[in-house]
Amino acid sequence: MEHQVSHRPPPRVLVFPLPAQGPVNxxxxxxxxxxxxxxxxxxxxxxxxHNRLLLHTDMQARFETYPGFLFKTISDGLPDDHPxxxxxxxxxxxxxxxxxxxxxxxxxxxxxxxxxxxNPLVSCIIVDGIFGGFTTDIANExxxxxxxxxxxxxxxxxxxxxxxxxxEAGELPVRGEEDMDRLIKxxxxxxxxxxxxxxxxxxxxxxxxxxxxQVFVQQTLHSPRAQAIILNTFEDLEGPxxxxxxxxxxxxxxxxxxxxxxxxxxASKESSFQSFNSLFEVDRSCMTWLDAQPPKTxxxxxxxxxxxxxxxxxxxxxxGLVNSxxxxxxxxRLDLVAGDGNHAQIxxxxxxxxxxxxxxxxxxxxxxxxxxxxxxxxxxxxxxNSILESIVAAVPMICWPYFADQQVNSRFVSxxxxxxxxxxxxxxxxIIEKMLNDLMVERNEEFSKAANKMGRLARQSVHKGGSSYxxxxxxxxxxxLTSS
Length: 484
Ligand code: UDP
Prior knowledge:
Elements: E1 12-16, H1 21-36, E2 40-46, H2 47-56, H3 59-64, E3 70-74, H4 89-99, H5 101-109, E4 124-128, H6 132-142, E5 146-150, H7 154-168, H8 211-221, E6 228-231, H9 235-246, E7 252-254, H10 258-268, H11 285-291, E8 298-302, H12 311-324, E9 327-331, H13 348-353, E10 358-361, H14 366-371, E11 375-380, H15 384-392, E12 397-399, H16 406-416, E13 420-422, H17 429-442, H18 444-461, H19 467-483
Parallel strand pairs: 1-2, 1-4, 2-3, 4-5, 5-6, 6-7, 8-9, 8-11, 9-10, 11-12, 12-13
Helix pairs in contact: 1-10, 5-6, 7-8, 7-9, 12-17
The structure holds uridine-5'-diphosphate.
């Protein structure tokens, strides 16, 4: 029998992230992976975030090299002068969920998301699951397959899926500070270690109709309506939790750590990896400083793109650092401190005391920093991307979670994976000093051993034959099949 050679263009996949640093980071990497494997991709970003990416990266030049790759933009529905920084990200989420339905539908019905040559129409949607409700309604109406990408770890997604049961059983709302160490009974598989203080931050609301709590719970309830779920995780890290999620959403593609997966696949095609997804201006001067530090002596400190702390918390961190005598690289975003603060608020005598062993930047090339031989620990807000990047680099962590999924993540880092310590809800110079010393000196061997083991498993998962490698191939194959 003669085989017919198909001249049909590849399917076009629409990738629509939550327009914040972490989600854009992982979804742009997924977009590049799909393009690398020959799919046409349209990356739909908000005007604001797209312009910030253009300002700080030369991604346009990079992605133009992929046939059929397009960047398109959509309004987030907020006024131009809205800050869209720090935790005002929640306002962006609410606005897109309430304002974007009709424009999203119009875009899909028009030919604007594709090119006139090749296939102009979208044949598969991959959307951040936080927008899972309205996008799934439209996808179903237009008969377009839709996949939800959850940028959190499986651990937090499983908690979110169970919050309605936790509420129904009367375990929420919290009854006060004395209640915070109570174990939660209604998240299966986590009964022995998940305390109230480890639930996603929005569960601390005294009013259960709180819109931030509701958006996380309600959007997660839409997950089973999608054809599949993509998670930036790997089986050796979260296998047991993934099995639980599969009881509600059978088709899960666990394809992480995505940054490592992209690196590997680019290398196999003799193409070089570079991050093109920074919303901030990267200061590379810290790499030269790191080159001059002895191996494994530096603690890298970064609280991600959204965390905002109070000035007294900043001062506690500084005293902890000064008293620990440990070398550090600190990322002090201009909007890290509430109000108009920045690192200029650090008392000059503290800066003076650490000038020979500390370095401060506004934004670092984090993946490279974590891979640098001088870095031996990471003081992190435990955002999901930061955790995966630390795991791949085999760097143990001290977690100081700020919001959303970070409270769950930090509990898993300390209690389940034993990759570091959880400083949750505490910001005290003595404890900071002790934890820094434990991580970098006293208990360094124990944590480094666990981190090396998990790092190896993470890297293996994206090798040919590894679970994440296989799952990405399966995802691409399934997109091709459902689009043919
Ligand atoms: N990041 C970076 N440079 C920095 C701080 C953070 O490149 O100085 C990157 C980091 O590598 C990660 C992302 O920003 O990929 C932050 O995502 P995460 O999920 O950890 O936290 P979020 O910012 O969403 O709270």
